[in-house]
Amino acid sequence: MEPRAPERFPRVDADGHLHNPGEWNAAVADELARRRGIALTPAHWVVLDALREYYFHFGSVPSVDSICRFFGDRREHVRGLFGTCLDAWLIAGLPNPGDVERARLRLM
């Protein structure tokens, strides 16, 4: 059964990032992805879970190369799934990383 959009969607900032990453769940991720024209698959969930784990462990944005090395794949793997690393970050429900990191994630 697919998660349904939450009845009360968590607050997001002007860029679409959740104000409170603790309000993220599968239904929220599905809705954030839907808003970007992405249908989440098991491959997406592996990346989303890894991003969240990395962020909550280290408190920072991982480089796309580290993400891809973790999966034993090329940079195009994440791009192929999400379009940009910024979209993956946003769908993972992580906070707005700031202008500099947003620009870097957009290019990855």
TrEMBL record:
GO CC field: cytoplasm
Biological process annotations from GO: tRNA wobble position uridine thiolation
Entry keyword set: Cytoplasm
An example molecular function term from Gene Ontology annotations: sulfur carrier activity
Locations listed in the record: Cytoplasm
A Pfam family reported for this protein in Swiss-Prot or TrEMBL: DsrC
Primary residence: cytoplasm
Family: Belongs to the DsrC/TusE family.
Name this polypeptide is given: Sulfur transfer protein TusE
Organism of derivation: Sulfurifustis variabilis
Lineage: Bacteria, Pseudomonadati, Pseudomonadota, Gammaproteobacteria, Acidiferrobacterales
